[in-house]
Structures are given as C-alpha cells and as structure tokens.
Amino acid sequence: MTTSIKNIEKNAMTNTSRRSFIVGSTAIATGLAIGFDFSIMSEAHAAMGTGTTSMAPLSTPEIGVWVVVKPNDDVVVRIVRSEMGQGTITGLAQMVAEELECDWSKVSYEYPSPEESLKRKQVWGSFSTGGSRGIRTSEQYVRKGGAAARIMLIQAAANAWGVPVSECVVLKGVITHTPTGRKTTFGKVSVAASQLPVPTEVPLKDPKQWKLIGKPVDRIDGVADKVTGRQIYAIDLKFPGMLVANIRQCPVFGGKVKSYDATAALGMKGVKKVVPVGADAVAVVADTFWHAKTAMDAVKIEWDDGGNGAVSSASILKSLQEGLVANDTFVGNSYGDVKAAIASSNKKVESSYFFPFLSHATLEPQTATAKWTPELCEVWAPTQDGEATFAAVIAASGLAAENCNVYKVNLGGGFGRRGAFQDYATQAVLIAKQIPSTHIKLIWTREEDMTHDHYHPVMMCKLTGSFDDKKNLTGLDMRLSGQSILSAVRPWIVDQNKGKDPAVFQGLDASGEAAINYTFPNLMVDHAMRNTSVPPGFWRGVNANQNTLFLEAFMDELAEAAGADPLDFRRKYLTNPRALAVLNAVADGIGWSKPAAPGIFRGLAQVKAYGSYVAAACEISVKNGTDVKIHRMVAATDPGFVVNPAQVERQIAGSFVYGLSALFEEEITIENGAVVQKNFDTFNSIRLSQMPKVETILIQGGGPEWGGVGEPTICVAAPAVLNAIAKATGKRYRTVPLKKSGVKLV
C-alpha cells in the first residue's frame, strides 16, 4: 500500500471556550505543569497500579481549594505542580501544612485536573513546573491556602463551642479551647468548616515561627516504589485492549512525508494499522511495542527534506562566527562607553567560546496514551504543563474543552522537554482518532527522541576586556551569537520586544532574577540572532548555562591578565553582598586561602539565576594532560528561603551531574539537515564513578524574593571545573564539550 501525503486538514476551532483556552494556555506556557484527576475513570487507577493519590470523593470536606480533611484527620493537600523527582510536591505540601498546623504524618496529596481548573476559573493560580518556579512563584498563595483552612477549622470549632476564636489554638491538627481545655480535631469539624466562607484577609507566619518549613522531612511521595521498580511511569501504563504505536518522523527538520509503502509492515505479526500522523510522520499501531517498532522499520518512507537537507554543524558554525562581527544586534545590557574604553586601553584581552546543541535525553522517551471517541477524548501524559497538554488535546481532538480530559502520569524526566512542547500528546491523539474507542499508547524510540528534541540552543560568545596602565579593568564587551529560544517557542514575546529575545541575556541582565552580579566601569552585552532549522527549547538552566560559562571562564582569563588571584579579582567587581557571600562560602569551603595539595588545582564560579545566588568551587587533578579527576566540589546556594534542605542538596548534586555531562561529553551535531547522535553511545552522560563528592552550603538571605533551586546551580558547575583545568594544564579550552579536545573525565 502506497500513500501520498500532500495536504493535512487542520481542525477548525469553532468553539469559543475551546479557542480561548488554547490561546490562553499557549500564552502562559513556560515549561510548567498542572496535576490531573485520576479519579474520573476507575480504569485509570488500574492502569496506575497501587499507591496513586487521586482526587478525593466529593463527600470529603474541602476546606478551601487547597485542603481536604478526612474524618480520620488525614489531610490531603492539593498540588498543581509536576513531580519529576525534584521534590516539588513535598516542598509545596510542607508550606501548606506549616500554615495549616496539621500533623505532617497524616499529610498526603492529590492532583486537580486542568478541566477542573478551567471550570473553577483557574482558582489554583499558576500550574507551572519549569524555570525553577515550582515553589518560588506559588509560595504566597499556597501558604495562604493553608492559613485560610486553619482559620476556617478553628472558626468551626469555636462556633460549635460557642466561644471566641481568640480563645482557641491549634497544634498538629488538634484544636484546643485554652480556658477550658476542651479539644477537638480537624476531622471532627471539617464538615462544618467546609460550609464557611474562605477568609480574604489571611496573615502568614513570620519565618521565625516556622516549624516545618526549613526541615529536611521525608518526601511525601515516597521512594520505596522507585527503588523496587514498582513506580508506574507513563511508559508503563496498561489498559484492557490497549494498542501500542511507534512513530517515525522526517529526520530533516522542516521536512515532510512525500509517500510511504506499508505493504510489508501490514503483513507482520501483531500489526493493526499504519497511519499518517500530521504532515511529517507515519506510525505503526500494533499489539505490543516490539511488534510496532519492528514493523515501523519495515515501512518504506520517501521524505521531502523541505529545503533543509544541506544544513550542517559546519554551516551553522559559519553563521555564528559571522554573527560575532555583525552589526545587526540587540543590546541586552549596556552602560558607559565600552568602545572608548577598549580604544584607549593599555592592554586588551579577547577570547571566543562555543556552546553546542544539547538533547534533554530524558530517561523515559516521549510517550502518551490517548483514547478518542466522537464524544470524548482522554489523554494520559507525563507532562510538565498540564494546561498546555490540555490545550494540545483540545486542538488535536476537534472537540470542545468540556469533552476532553488530561491525566498526569509520573514523569521519567522532564528538564524542560515536556512543558512548552506537546508534540507527543498531539501525536497520540491524532493516531487515536484513526482507531476510535481504543487506548493507544504512543512510545517514541530513543533514536526518535534524540532526533526530534527541542535542543539547548547553540551559541558562541566573543568577549573583550580592557585594562588601564594599573591593571584595572576598564571595560567588558560581550557579543553573543546564536539561537533565540523565544523566537521559536514564544514569538509574540520577541515581537513585543521589537525583535529582541530578552531571555538570551539570562545571567547578564541589568536587573531582576537573572541580573549580572558584577559592576564594571563600562559594559556592553549584545546578541546577534542567528536562528537555524534545528528547533531550540528550554533545557535545564536555559541561557544562564552558557552565559555563566562564557563570563566566569573569561573572568579567570582577565584575572590572569591582571596578575590577580581569581577570587580577589571577582571580589573587586562584585557589588551585591549576597553574591559575595556565596562566593566567599565556597572559597572557604574549598580552602582557597591555603595552598592546595601537590597536583591539586582549584577553580570557582558564581552567578545569579532564577532569583538565587549560587557559587561553586572544585579541586581537580589532571594526568597525561587530558585525564581529569574531580576530587571535590563545594556548592553554595542562597535562594532566599530553604523549604527542605535535604531536597535542595539532592537538587544541587543532580544539577552538577547534568552540568558536568554537558561540559565533558554531550553534543548534538547536524549533518544533511538531521541529528547525528541517536542514542547514549554517542550522546554520553558521566557515570557514578566519575561523579565527585558535592558539599552543599545553604544560605538563607531572607529574600525579599524567593529563588529557585533546580536550575541555578547547574550553571556554575562547568565553569568552575573549566577554570581549574586551565590552572592544571596551562591551556584554556573554550569549546564545549571537552571530548572534542581530547579531554576526558576519569
């Protein structure tokens, strides 16, 4: 059977509420997430196995929208963020429980659905997990949700006793009337409390009064099932009569399917159907993944490369190099007169750095399960942004919002891949529409996942520093040349900024959550936008990754040119006391003021990103000029407030794995318009034996802003090690990954 594909019909969005939801969700999508209600269908429970927490029955008292209290005093906290292993669920529940004054041992959680959110006019606020926003952008209203519930429960008890509220106190879910000693529990007054109006004036505790926030309590989602392998992820879902789909998309970005011949595949074991998916893909639907995958290999596809077949890493590099000296730039941060400072300088230092495309490489490839009928479309997805998934399902299904449901399933990794990008969910629906009334689980192969990612943007940077005759830095010029994520993902933001992508300057901004911490006499940071056919996306740390590496590696170069110690040189230009505090903390932790042991070399780096101040220092040794051993890393983080120290420590260590893997091993390259790397044999990650010990220092600067944790520290791992390697070898490596220069981590 040979099929030609010319035009793909687009669904007309005629339903007003459907259209507004799609537009609204797309506008607010930031790689973020919402939870989904698994109680809507009993079969979802069976698919998820044991231990799934779902929406409480309607008969269970709801104390505001954040808290449900059961008659046995169990407290269920509603969480609208996505858990990817980072501990967001636990942190958010801690904040609610802190203000609620309940017994932590009785706390569990549940997920509201995006459909329920739409019905309630988004009463839960932001449903986002990305950009290290899981806690920091919701702490106010989440804490108020817990405090409001406490007020309502105490009021219900006071009403029952006929006493003033001021005479009642609560501790661990037990309400006491102080004058008489009478006691009751949350569970006993929960029904009455649920009938009371939610207070509008809700005072929050002073941080000095916190009992639960700041404590390293155990994770609320548990770890036993993850250790034993019983944890169910989206790729593990099973439904009665379910079929499995495998997909093949045009390997050249922007390409399409010209035609395909499915004759051989249709005759293979277990195969049910071969279907087109959009304009650029074909899928095989079978009874098992293996049958679908082997049949997919038998489908003969003729591709139309769409004109991008000649794109290569070499052509992209040429474009970036041209951008380093071009005049069509956007200024991100500027003061003084850098050109004049450089022209009149006594000494000039100039270097160029390169940072490559990177795949998210989530352990679980892209997957989603969909069931479509003319009346209802349901999708089970491992999403970082449930509302964006919901919008994608509505658009692909052709149904109204009230006829669609999305259920969140545990994510086998996210890192930004499963937030703004909903291709996998859309594809699952498009396939399910062609086999109605059947659960279709779409599973990408690892090769497909790596070939069709939305990659960390490729970027170059040319830096020029100038000195006077006393070796004082007089100016710094930074020219960025490379991709704009927002041009591809949120072009309206670029349009609003007259063609500039403000996110490109993350870590180098003049002010805000990603402001540069240094103050130089003269500064210019600009960007030559050089977009490619390779789709960029939000990759853990986003643009602060490469910007920190560029600046912090160059700071060591400038210090060397000035004949100064790298720490002292940084201190000279650091004006923010919180930035100075984290830098001093890692310097003290690594023992910077004392000579290193023979053969040991040190490096450090700092940045402000996602509202947090972070720094790292390391000790390394190098054998044979290329074999690097990292002995220690010290990390200091000041996020304003620390909700769960144990989780923060794990996040920092995990982010260092990500950052060091990118420094030494990882790169996506392009040939003939397509990705070269297909699996972990060519896109490698560092191993446990290569991972150094990470010593964590947590500083609570007290705000006023709350900073993120999951992404800021990834930015300082690579430049700290890169600086130490330069000290050890006398060579300055300016191209990442280091394997391209023969340098490896041992």
Percentage beta strand = 15-25%
Largest sheet: 7 strands, mixed
Rg: 27 Å
The backbone outline, from C-alpha atoms, is globular
Question: If helices are DSSP runs of H or I spanning 4 or more residues, what is the number of helices?
Answer: 21
Q: How many strand elements?
A: 29
What does it look like?
The chain has 746 residues and is α+β, with helices and mostly antiparallel strands. Helices cover 30% and strands 22% of the residues. The chain has a seven-stranded mixed sheet with strand order 11-12-9-19-16-17-18. It has a five-stranded mixed sheet with strand order 14-22-21-20-15. A hairpin with a 2-residue loop joins β23 (601-609) and β24. It starts with a strand and ends with a strand. Residues 1-58 have low confidence and may be disordered.
Summarize the structure.
The chain contains 21 helices and 29 strands.
Write the layout of secondary structure elements.
Layout: E1 2-4, H1 16-28, H2 42-48, E2 62-63, E3 67-69, E4 75-78, H3 88-100, E5 107-110, H4 114-119, H5 139-161, E6 168-171, E7 174-177, E8 182-185, H6 186-194, H7 224-228, E9 243-249, E10 256-261, H8 263-266, E11 271-277, E12 281-286, H9 289-298, E13 300-304, H10 313-323, E14 330-335, H11 338-343, E15 347-355, E16 367-372, E17 377-381, H12 386-397, E18 404-408, H13 423-432, E19 440-443, H14 446-451, E20 459-467, E21 473-482, H15 485-489, H16 491-496, E22 523-529, H17 542-562, H18 566-573, H19 577-590, E23 601-609, E24 612-623, E25 627-638, H20 645-664, E26 670-671, E27 674-675, E28 693-698, H21 714-729, E29 744-745
Parallel strand pairs: 4-5, 9-19, 17-18, 21-22, 25-28, 25-29
Antiparallel strand pairs: 1-10, 2-3, 3-4, 6-7, 7-8, 9-12, 10-13, 11-12, 14-22, 15-20, 16-17, 16-19, 20-21, 23-24, 24-25, 26-27
